[in-house]
Amino acid sequence: MAQAFEAMKLTDRVYWVGAIDWSLRNFHGYLTSRGTTYNAYLVVGEKTALIDTVKAGFGDEMLSRVASVMDPSDIDYIVSNHAEMDHSGCLTQAVERIRPEKLIASKAAVSALDQHFHGALQVTPVSNGETLSLGDAELTFVETKMLHWPESMVTYFGGDAVLFSQDAFGMHLASTERYVDELPWDIVEYETAKYFANIVLPYAPVVVKALSSLAGLDLKVDLLATDHGPLWRQPEHREWVTGKYGEWSEQAPTRKAVVVYDTMWGSTDMMARAIGEGLSAGGAHPLLMPLSGSHRSDVATEVLTAGALVVGSPTLNKTLYPTVADVLAYLTGLTPKNLVGGAFGSYGWAGQGSSHVQEALEKMKVDLVVEELKVQYVPDAEALAGCRAWGRTIADALMARLPQ
Ligand code: FEO
To answer: Could you read off the pLDDT of 100-111 as tens digits, one per residue?
Structure first.
């Protein structure tokens, strides 16, 4: 019988059987403006394994793609590389339909899956480096703790040189194209960086360790098969993305100065524009991101490759403007590093808004190279000249940090 969803053959023995989520726009606070995919794979040997599953609600699509290759009940093993619900949400549905011999996950995933599904799943734990025979083929499991959950692991299929890397090297991008090289490169570049900034960044030190331990295994990889978005099959693209993961983990400062702010009656906006002029005069590259039109996850993406973070807030009811509070809470969790910066804002009679910004930036360990800058009510020409000079001071501190 004809069906809407079919598997896509990737290699001799590997099929993509995931789901495309064209309408997702909010991934726990991250604006996924291009949707996403939840990638799942079949490895077909004498025995067959399903690697990862998809988010709840997409199980029928996944099973339908599987059915275009084989009867789902003929699958022998399910491997869960990562317990987060965008990959485990339909595990119980998959287990009920497939009745696998084993559901395999890392040791740390046993309690994680139990706490998600409250005893509904029987998990067979595997250790780091353990293998699973598929008869004429073999899977190897490698722990990648905190990349980006404690139970995360990747699965290597040496037979066709495929590394199933779960979230690592992914991007939120819905498409029927399955490979990075079939998509516009500027979109691939932006969405890969956005994914790193919003998902992977807090675990940057672990990324470096995980990359070097994977490199130490000297695995031949012809296909890097992530759990989100298109796959990496060209050697130069795999080299690019692994290189970028290393570079983004380091967060070496650049000339880019992100100025993120909101405004109540236009005064903090006037300050931001004058500060931008001063940053530019000092050799920095200012990027003004008014929160009336900039999403927190786009701010995080720009901060990933910045050297300065300058944040402005008006004072509203003795505290921060709500949009500024939101972006500061979000960025604090992502723990960007190696930034200089400062806090600014206009106020009416109390002026606590920029002080709260200053406290948040201190908590984020941004190197505050200037005093907090406040202007009462509407800045006049002299105040704006002061804003420009203040921006220039930040630029000078930033430029002094860059390699000459
Ligand atoms: Fe795609 Fe960490 O889940």
So the answer is: 999 999 999 999
Tell me, yes or no, if the pTM score tops 0.90.
yes
Amino acid at the residue 131: T
Burial pattern 268-290, b for ≥16 Cβ within 10 A else e, equals: bbbbbbbbbbbbbebebbbbbbb
pLDDT tens for residues 249-266? 999 999 999 999 999 999
The domains located in the chain, with CATH, are 8-250 (3.60.15.10), 256-399 (3.40.50.360)
CA nearest ligand 1 atom 1, residue: 167
Between the CA of 86 and the centroid of ligand 1 the distance, in Å, is 6
Whether 118 is a known active-site residue: answer no
Looking from the CA of residue 166, the nearest atom of ligand 1 is: 1
